[in-house]
Amino acid sequence: MTPALRTARTFTALVVLSASATAYGATVSPWLILPGTCVGAIAWWCADHAYDTHRQILARHGQEQRAAAGPAELPLPCCSFWRHSDGAVHGPGCARPPLARRDTYRLDDADRRALEEIAAPYDVPPRGAAR
Questions:
Q1: Within 13 A of 102's CA, how many CA atoms are on the CB side?
Q2: Quick one: pLDDT at residue 84?
Q3: What is the mean pLDDT of residues 23-49?
Q4: Which residues contact 101 (CB under 8 A, 6 or more apart)?
Q5: End-to-end CA distance of the chain
């Protein structure tokens, strides 16, 4: 827990307390709504900025850890498709071994039969066909 997170949680508690005090004050006098709302708005703004500071501290810490670990090992590009798609696609003449290649758009026979069974009730017959 960073000090900014502790501050943000304190201000969030103040927002809740201010909202409940404003709700109670509204039952006593309408003029008590204004100070409670102002305090709540300022506390909300402070909590938001404290949460932003907490996220910045965590991001900076993560960047420092990644910088200390050194550069990441990237695989060598195998084809121009891989190079230009950030590793998502491989070309037809790719030099990678077949086991390392992923073809998620192809279904084997068992998957195709299972998909056809699921889709069968939703198939629309062609026009003019008997039902």
A1: 5
A2: 64
A3: 94
A4: 90, 94
A5: 66
How many distinct helices (H) and strands (E) make up the chain? 4, 0
The model's pTM is 0.53
Give the count of beta carbons closer than 10 Å to the beta carbon of residue 23: 12
Residue 74 has pLDDT above 70, yes or no: no
Give the contacts of 91 (CB within 8 A, at least 6 positions apart).
79, 80, 81, 82
Q: Exposed/middle/buried for 32, CB within 10 Å: 0-12, 13-18, 19+?
A: middle
Q: Average model confidence (pLDDT) for the chain?
A: 79
- Write out the two tokens for 89: 């696609």
CA dist list (Å): 31 to 26, 90, 97, 116, 125: 8, 68, 76, 68, 69
- Tell me the mean pLDDT in the region 26-31: 90
